[in-house]
Each structure stands twice: as C-alpha cells, then as structure tokens.
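In the current project phase, the collection of sequences with tokenised folds has grown. A sample record is quoted in full directly below:
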Amino acid sequence: MISLVFATNNLHKLREIREITGNAISVVSLGDIGLDAEIPETQDTIEGNARQKARFIFEQTGMDCFADDTGLEILALNGRPGVYSARYAGEGCSFTDNVKKVLEELQGIEDRRASFRCAICLVYKGNEYLFEGRVDGDITIAPSGTDGFGYDPVFRPEGMKETFAQMPAYLKNGLSHRGRAVHKMLQYLSMLQ
C-alpha cells in the first residue's frame, strides 16, 4: 500500500482526507512522523501554496507526501476570499470570524454564486504532480448545519438544498472540491501500482 505524509496541521482536513481515501492509501500525519513544523503558506495562488507546502515537507523528510490548499471564490466579491480564505478575517481568526466577514460583505447582494477550488500537490518518488477539484454553488444568507468546517455552513453546492455542513460526510466528500481533487490523485496513484 502506498503511504503518503499529508502536509497539514489542520486536524479537520486530516480527518476528511482519511475519510475520502479510505483504504486506498495510508495517510500519515505530521504527528505520526514526529514533525512539529510551521508549514509555509506565502504564495498568491492556491496551486502555489499547495506546491510550497508539499515541497517543504519533502525537503524536511524525504518522504512521499502531498499537500492541499483550498479557496472559496465568490463572484460578487471579485473572487475573494480566494487564496486568503483560511485567514480572511485576519491572522489568528476562527472559522466563525471568516464566515461572519463573508456574510457581512454579501449583505444586500442577490448574486451569491461561489466556487470552492482545491489544489493538491503530490510529491512521489521525487516527482511533483498537481491535481485540482472544483465545485460550484452559492453562499446562503445565514449559516446552517454543524458538520464540516470552514465555510461549510454557508456553502450550498449547485443543485442541492443543504449546505456542506448539513450533509453527512460521505455525501459532502462525494461532491466537494477536495473530494474531487483527492480522487484524481488516487486515480493517478492506482496507475503507478
């Protein structure tokens, strides 16, 4: 079985990635390998951040690894929060702070179309590969649901009545940007075996 280090300190992402990958690969956390490092994330695109994080972990450990970065892009906000989604309300902000800022900026705006994009950079046997996933939808007027994390309580995928935070994990992971990017990575890895 292929074993990959997941370059994240975000326990929500780690759990979600393990749910998506199931038994297809072994996902190793930074804690599993005893690496306590602040992972740099200073690029101006989600693809750039995914590459930067994966390269950093590969340089630190020499192990096969992958990293993801995700951005919520809202049409009426000219693509914001985008690459700054995780810290949109400022450094050290919470998920709730970010959601509150987005909802405040969208007050009175009818066109609430948005997309979630995820980029995954895989470093496998020293080679680098990029996989992307995207899901379109809209931003709700108020948060709904208690599952998921980040903007899940206000993002409703196209054609659905529920937000990501109202969906069971298996349904969200089958529709989500991260799920789509991970499945592309798994498909590629299956061809290497």
About this structure: The longest helix spans residues 46-61.
